[in-house]
Batch of 4 targets.
Target 1
Amino acid sequence: MRRLISYAAFVCAVVMSAAAYGQAPPPGGAPLPSLQAPPPGAPLPPPPPPNAPAPQYPMAELERVVSPIALYPDPLLAQVLAAATYSQDIPAAAQWADQHHYLTGPALASAIQADQLPWDPSVQALLPFPSVLGMMATSMPWTQELGAAFLVQQQDVMNAVQAQRQRAAQFGYLQTNPQVVVTPGPYIEIRPVNPAYVVVPYYDPRIVYVAPAPGFRVVTAIRFGYGVTMGAAFAPWGWGYSHVDWGTRVVYINHDPWHRTWVNRATYVHPYAVQRVAPAAVVHHEEVHPAIQRSEQERAAEREGRKREEEHKREGEKARGRGGV
C-alpha cells in the first residue's frame, strides 16, 4: 500500500503541456519508456507548432518526466537532456545508430562525419548509444516532454533529477559500484569510474524511487553492466567536456553552458568542434557504410548488462569457415 500511495503521488500531476501540444495529455503525462522498448518505427506525434506557448510543468510532473534518466552518469545525463531538445532528430538518428551499431570508437566517429549526418551535434553525440536513442525514439511523447521541460525550466529539471537521486540513494538503490562513483552531499553526483567509459544504467522508475518491499535486494534494482568507450575521437561532440554544475544547476556541453531555451530554440547554435552539415547537402550524398540492424538478442544484451556480441560478425566468421566470401 505504501508503494502504491508513493507512486500515485509521484505521477499525480497531469495538467502541463496540453496547451503546447493542442491536446490533453494521457493520465500521468506521456507513458514512460519501457525497458523492453521495440526497435524504432512507431508512429510519432506531431511536434508542437513554432508559435506554441511554453509549457509549464509542476515539480511532481518534472520528477516523473526525468525518472528514466535521473540515475544516468552526469556526462550521459547532460548529453541526453541536450539531445531531447532536438526531439525531431531522434527517430532518424536512432535508426542510423541501430543500423550501424557494429561501428565503434574512431571508426564510428569517422562514419558520422563521412556520412554527412544532418542532425544536431547534440543528437549525434548519442549515436554510440543505440539503446539510449532507441528508447527515446520509441517513446517520443515522453522525449518531447523531456525536451520541452529542459527548454523551459532547466533549473527545475535539474532540481527534479536531484530529488529522484536523493530518493534512490535514501532507499539504498543508488550506490557506488565498480562502474560509477556516487558522491553524496547536498548534491548527488554520478560519475564514471573511468571517465572514458560511460555506462548506461537500466532500472525501473516504478521501483527505485520508492521504499523497497521487505526482503527485496536493493542492489539488484539498477544494472550497470553495459557501457561504451568514449575516446578522443568523440571530443568534437563534447564527450570528455560535458558535465553538470550542480551548484548552479547548469548543464555544460563541450565546455560551454547549454543556453538553448524555448524562446531562442529556432536560432540558438551551441558551439561544437564538429562540422555541421546542412540537410540539403545530404540528399546527394551516398552512404558507404552498410545498414545492419541489431537483433533482439543484441538489444537484450545491452538491457541485461551483458557483453555485446555482434551477431553479424559471428555469422561472417561461420561463412568464411565454410569457404564463403
Target 2
Amino acid sequence: MSSRERRRVYAIGRSILLAPLLVGLGCDLVPLGNQCTYNGRRHDQGDTFPSADGCNTCSCSGGGVACTLRACLPPDAGTIDAATGCSFAGRTYTIGETFRADCNTCTCTASGQVACTLIGCPVDAGPPPVDASDAGGDVDAGGDVDAGGDAGGTCAFDRTYRFHDDGGFVAYIDQSTLSPPRTHLMTRDHFRNSLPNQCTRALVCSDSTLVDVREIQQALAHPDVVAALAQTTRPFYGTDTRPVDGNVFMLDRDDGRGFSVGSGTVPAGLRALVDLLHLLRTQTAAAPECAGL
C-alpha cells in the first residue's frame, strides 16, 4: 500500500496522541513573490505538496502556505479484515458502518478498508459547547443540538448552495440544495415524463455519526473553497472525464459563484468538500423521510 493510500485509509483519530499539527510547523512559511518556501523548498502559487508531518497536504497561495490540520495516526493505527469488518483506533466496525474520527467521517468499506473524508480539522476540533438553555432547540442525551436548535446562533448556512454530479451513464441524477437555516433538499430525476421525486431533511448542528451543519461550514470555510468561490469566472479543477463516461462535481452558490471538480489532482480543500457532500447525499437518501426517492 502506498503512503498516499495509507493516509486516506487510516485518516485521523482523536483517541491517540496528536502528532504535531501544521500551524507553525515550519519556520520558513514565507511567500516570495509568486512562490512560497516551505520546509527548505520553494513552490509556485497553486502548487499542492505533502506537509512535513507526512499525512497533511499544503498549498501555496498569495497569503503563504496553507495546510490541512489533521492529526496523524501512526502507520499501524488501523487494520484490515474484509471477512469480519474493519478495525480502527482500537474499535471494530462492520462493513458499511460509518463513524466519526475527529472532525472527519469514516466508513468501513466492503473491502475491509476504512475510508475517511479529509477535512482539515482545527486544533480544537470537536463540537463547541452547547447551552442547554438555548430557546431555539433541545439538547439530546449526547450533548448535541437537535435539528431545531442553534448553538450560539451559528448553526445555520449563510446562504444557499446547490450541488450535483454531471455526466456518466446513470439511471437517474440527484441534485441537492443546502439552504438556511439547515435544510437539505434532494431531488432525484429518473428521466421519466414526470416531475423528479424529492425529499427534505433538516440537518443537525453537531452529530457524532452524521454529516452535520458545523462540519459543512468548516469545509466551506477552507481556503481552497473560499478561493474558488471568489473567482468571477467559474474555475474547473482536475480533468474532465465526461467524454469517456466520467462525471464532474458541480457546486453553485446563490450569488452566481461556483466551481467544477473533475478527476485527478485537485486542491485538498475542494476534494474534502466534494467527499463530504457526497457522503451527506448518501445519508440523506438513506433517511426514512427520503424513502420515496
Target 3
Amino acid sequence: MAEEGAVWQLSGRGAGRSYADVLLRYSVALLWPGDAGPWSPDRDDEEFEGGFVRRFAAELQSSGACRISAVGLVASGYSYLDVFDDVVGLDLQHARRVRCCELPTDYDFGQPVFGPTPTRFSRVQCAEVRDYVWRFLNSPPTYWQEAPLPALPAEEPAMEDIPSHLQDCIAAAADLYPLFRDSERFGPSPSEDEIVGHLVLPFLRSLGWLPERIGVKWRYIDVALFASLPRSPETCFFVIEAKRLGAGVESALDQAKGYVHSLGEARDIVVTDGVRYRLYAAQNEYAPIAYANLVRLKRSAVELFNRLARP
C-alpha cells in the first residue's frame, strides 16, 4: 500500500508546446530553465525565474506526483542532465526520475483543480486531486511502481568544427544570449524585432543571403528570403517567423503557416528565437527536418546550415 503524503503537479507544457511524451518515454520529470546551470542551496530563486526549481530540487520528496495524463512515483533525487538541454526548444536539464503510469485517457476533474493557468511545478492542495492520486496508487495494477526505469537517451555529440563563415555570428550569439536573459544587467527581454536585427539577420548574411533578397516585415512576414528578384510570392524561398528569446520556437509554426497560405505558394518555414532554428518542409506536411541551436551546437546542425544557405 502506498503511504499517503505530498502530491505534486508537474506541467508537461512550456512556451505553448507539449513535451509530455518525452517525460513518459524516459520516465523522467523535467523542469526549466536549465540554461542557468545546476541548482544549489546557495543560488537565488531569481536565477531560475522563481522558486519552481528550488521546490523541485529540494522540497519534492519520494511520494506521489500527479498529472491529469499520468500518475507517478518519484524514483530519484535531483540531478542536472545535459541530454535534455534542448527539448522542443526548451532547456529542461533539471531532472528527477519518475515511474509513470500513463492513463488510458486524460482524467477530467471537471473543474480547474490546478488553477486557470497551471504552473510548471507546484504542490497540490486540492483534496479531490489528492484523493484520486492515492486511490489510483493503491489500486491494481501496481507492477509499474517497481518496474525498471528505461534508459535515458544518448547525448548527441557537440559540433567540433564550426564552419568558418559562421564563426563570427555564432560567437556573437553566444555573447548576447546570456546577456539578453539577464534581466538585472540587461532589463526587459529584447523584442522580436530586436531578435531579428541582432541575431537573425547576421546569421542569414553569414549563410550568403544578400540584403536585397532578405525581406523584413514583408507582407507581415517577419523575414522572407527570396531566390531571385523581383521580390514576389513566386520568388519567396523561405518564410521565417521569429519569437522572443526562449519563447519556444515550435509555438510559432501555425502563425507562419498562415502567412504561407496567404502567399498562395507552398514554402518551407523556419521558426526561430534568434538562437534556436527549426526548419519545416512544406512538401512533407510541415514535418520538422532540420534544427540548430547556435549556443549549443550539435553535429546535426550542419543539416540546417546546408538547407538554409543561399542557393
Target 4
Amino acid sequence: MPLTVNHQDSFVAASISFNLAPSVSLSRATGAIEGQVRQLRVPGSIHGSFHGTAKAFQQSLQNEPYLIAAAVIAVYIALGILYIHPITVLSTLPSAGSGVLLVLIATGTEFNIVALIGVILLIGIVKKNAIIVIDFALDVPSGASV
C-alpha cells in the first residue's frame, strides 16, 4: 500500500516525467507522448495533461495565431492612420506567409518561437517594401516614364 496518494484537484493523480534526448524538440516529444496515449486507447475516465515546461509550450502554441493576427491588425491600423492603401499593402502578406511555410516544409524545420519571430519580422519587411513601392507609384507623374 502506498504511503501517500497524490491528488490533482479532487482526482487521484500519478505523475510521469520525461527528459528530452539531445536532438529531440519538445514539440516532437509531446507529439510522441500524445500519439502513444492514443494508441493505448485509455478509457474516457482517465485524463492526461502536461505540466511545467511542456504545458507552457502548449499554451504558447495556442497563442501564436492570435499573435500573428494582432500583428496584422496593428499593421492595418497603422497604415489606415497614415492614409496609405492598407488593403494593397496587406495583400502582399499571404504570399510571403505561404513562402515561409514552403521553406519550413522544404527544410524540415519546425515552426518554433524563432520561426514565429521571423514571421513577425517578415511582416514588417514586406509591409515596408509595399509602402515604398506604393509611395513611388503615387509620386510618379502621369505619362512619365521610369
